[in-house]
Amino acid sequence: xxxxxGKIWQQPPPFNGQNYDTWAKKMKTIMVANDLWExxxxxxxxxxxxxxxxxxxxxxxxxxxxxxxxxxxxxSLIEAAMTETVFPKIAAANYAKKAWDILETNxxxxxxxxxxxxxxxxREFENLQMKENESITDFSSRTSNVINQLKSNGExxxx
Length: 159
Description:
mainly alpha
């Protein structure tokens, strides 16, 4: 953005409910590059009570204002990535962490679902064979795709 020297601002990748792990990886990179990832990991506790706000020092008020701005940036990146069909799931989220957690719960799946998915990907990897008339490049690409799926689902794969 114009006022953020050294910051990277780019259009977030669209998310339509498919390939959550790939989308989340790309979004994490954008958030880290813009110094916003901490708002996804740690969340943001806004001081709402006027008495609490009044008790803050000027430096604390400035820090709070900056934190509000950064959390809003992170939330706006997430919202900008949502297609019309997915956006309603996070529409009520007021903070970036809440929106991220909703997406993770809805699209990443439970541990049991992920375990089954990982088993299926492992089986696919074990059954990989070069097809007749397939180039080495195409086979290598298919193999890399399966390995990346394993990694994005938590498998520690050594090349």
